[in-house]
């Protein structure tokens, strides 16, 4: 199951953003800028990442 994981990093501030976008970032488990979390690669988490793509970065393993 390790193959079905994404590493997501918050790179921009949540201040002044739409409430739904803030909720997506919190739902991914991100709280601070430059924090990296590992989440399951599901359609739900992909949708959350796509919604806030301007605030997060998906990191490559390697």
How are the SSEs ordered, and which strands pair?
Elements: E1 5-10, H1 19-27, E2 36-40, H2 43-51, E3 56-59
Antiparallel strand pairs: 1-2, 1-3
Brief digest:
Belongs to the universal ribosomal protein uL30 family. GO terms for molecular function: structural constituent of ribosome. With 62 residues, this protein is of the alpha+beta class.
Query: Architecture, CATH level 2?
Result: 2-Layer Sandwich
For the record, the CATH class is Alpha Beta
Uncertain stretches of 5 or more adjacent residues: none
What is the count of DSSP helices, taking H or I runs of 4+ residues?
A: 2
Number of domains: 1
The total strand number stands at 3
Radius of gyration: 11 Å
Order of SSEs: EHEHE
> What structural class do you assign from the helix and strand content?
alpha+beta
CATH superfamily: Ribosomal protein L30/L7
Distance between the termini: 17 Å
Q: What does the largest sheet look like?
A: 3 strands, antiparallel
**Roughly what fraction of the amino acids lie in strands?**
15-25%
**In which range does the helix fraction lie?**
25-40%
CATH topology group: Ribosomal Protein L30, Chain: A
């Amino acid at each position: 199951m390790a193959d079905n994981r994404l590493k997501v990093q918050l790179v921009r501030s949540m201040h002044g953003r739409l409430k739904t976008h803030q909720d997506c970032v919190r739902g991914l488990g991100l709280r601070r800028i430059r924090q990296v979390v590992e989440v399951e690669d599901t359609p739900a988490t992909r949708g959350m990442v796509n919604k806030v793509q301007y605030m997060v970065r998906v990191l490559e393993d390697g």
